[in-house]
Design goal:
By secondary structure, the protein is mostly helical. It is 43% helix and 0% strand. The relative contact order is 0.08.
């Protein structure tokens, strides 16, 4: 199966929100299982991350991105593990008594 047809099948499944096994064979994309396996292989190889970076670079170079509207989603940022979280500690030192005079 040609990569281009598999990519079209993947995009069809994602765009139409259908299960892989419901990918219509008459569209010529191949089986849903073939497209799913190709997607997994490409994800492991970092293909989509690389395409995303290239697309952002090209859009930025042509002035098509509005970076003032950019945001960071915590689900896409790797958390640093093992770093201690700052803890507020209660002071054990005495306080000056309030003056009542």
């Amino acid at each position: 199966m040609a990569d281009r047809l598999c990519l079209q099948g993947i995009l069809y499944v994602l765009h139409n929100d259908v299960a892989w096994q419901l990918l219509p064979l008459e569209c010529g994309f191949g089986s849903g299982q073939t497209c799913r396996r190709r997607l997994e292989r490409w994800q492991k190889a970092g293909v989509f991350e690389q395409l995303h970076r290239i697309l952002l670079a090209e859009l930025n170079a042509s002035g098509e991105l509005d970076w003032s509207r950019a945001c960071v989603d915590g689900s896409h940022i790797r958390a640093k593990k093992g770093e201690p979280t700052p803890v507020r500690r209660r002071s054990t030192g005495g306080r000056r008594a309030a003056s009542i005079t």
